[in-house]
Amino acid sequence: MIEHISLLRLPIMNSLSPTVDLHPSLIEHAPFGDPHRAQVVLQSLLSRRSCWPLTAPAPDDEELALIFDAALRAPDHGRLRPWRFVIVRGAARDALGDVLVDIAHARSPDEPLAAHEHRRQRALAAPLIIALGAAVSAESSVPEVEQLLSVGAATMNLLNAIHALGYGGFWATGADTYEPALHAALGFQSSERLLGFLFVGTPPSPERHTSRPERAAHVREWIAPSAR
User: Which residue of 54, 131, 164, 189 sits 20 to 30 Å from the alpha carbon of 64, by its own alpha carbon?
Assistant: First the structure.
């Protein structure tokens, strides 16, 4: 059933999406001995982009189960399981909007509450929001940065799974992310951190073209001095 869902909702690649040819390495080293399956996976990875605005529908409960299962496959040094995710949808978005307005008013108490009403729209910007949290263990020998990177890797898995199921995602932070009041309102413990939000829904159609960075600007090979 799970495999049926994942195949059913694979995004339709348009002419702007990169094409992945069946490279010899795909044929020789493809997972499960299926080069075409590897091609589909790479096609999905290479066509992912941040999407805005986002509208209904959002992933349903069964699709969300797949999405979070993908997140929980992230690298995890020390098996600390630092991932903490909070789903906000439906009427809960209105309640989150109230919290955002109150936080903005607390930052500028001299301004009338109505001056911060626009902050409510952030909670309604997508049909589904995922708050991204990290439970960092101070007692572990695993450096804090590695624990945070694990949450970042899990978030990237979320985005890739969201895209593979035909939806769009947008990763955002902003000043509210670091407000203790928002941290508490979402139920994060004092030992946990709120790191940002994923906005999830259906991307606009047709898709806009996204320019991609040049590989050479970000990748280099180190050559040992003795080999120079």
Answer: 189
d(CA 154, CA 198): 12
Identify whether the C-beta of residue 199 lies closer than 8 Å to the C-beta of residue 80: no
**Cross-sheet strand order for the sheet of 128-135:** 83-89, 128-135, 192-201, 168-172
| C-alpha torsion angle, residues 61, 99, 176, 49 (rounded to 10) | 30
CB contact at 8 A, 96 and 88: yes
| Spatial contact of 131 and 151, defined as CB atoms under 8 Å apart | no
Of the options 3.40.109.10, 3.40.50.300, 1.10.468.10, 3.30.1240.10, the CATH number for the domain spanning 49-204? 3.40.109.10
Lookup result for tokens 């009041």:
181
- Residue indicated by tokens 């790479």: 42
Residue 139: per-residue pLDDT: 96
Strand partners, 130: 87, 198
pLDDT in tens, 9-62: 344 343 334 555 656 665 566 666 677 888 888 899 999 999 999 999 999 999
Residue 220 burial (10 A CB sphere; 0-12, 13-18, 19+): exposed
If pLDDT is split at 50, 70 and 90, which confidence band does 3 have?
Answer: very low
- Pairing assessment for the beta strands 128-135 and 83-89 based on DSSP bridges: antiparallel
Element (H, E) at 192: strand 192-201
Candidates 7, 4, 3, 1; CA nearest to 165 is 7
